[in-house]
Write a structure and sequence with these properties.
A hairpin with a 4-residue loop joins strand 4 and strand 5. The chain has a single domain, classed as Jelly Rolls. It is an all-beta fold. The protein is built from no helices and 8 strands.
């Protein structure tokens, strides 16, 4: 997944799982997201926030509310 961009919407309690990601930046455009599987532990990201992610193995993103996010995967 190196060098990819994606934009995705997630409903409340819906999940997306990404494998093979070494580093990514994520912007929560709407709602609230719960992210797990990072070196930093679990992260909650709210609308307007941007985070850098360093996944351990699998990155799991869950919509805490109806959410929209974009990601740059390096």
């Amino acid at each position: 997944m190196k060098g990819k961009s994606l934009r995705m919407s997630l409903g409340k309690d819906k999940l997306v799982s990404l494998n093979g990601v070494k580093k990514a930046s994520l912007v929560c455009e709407q709602g609230k997201l719960w992210i797990t599987g990072t070196k930093e532990g679990d992260i909650v990201v709210k609308s307007g926030e941007k985070v850098s992610l360093f996944p351990l193995h699998r990155l799991v993103i869950q919509g805490g509310t109806e959410s929209m996010f974009s990601m740059e995967i390096n």
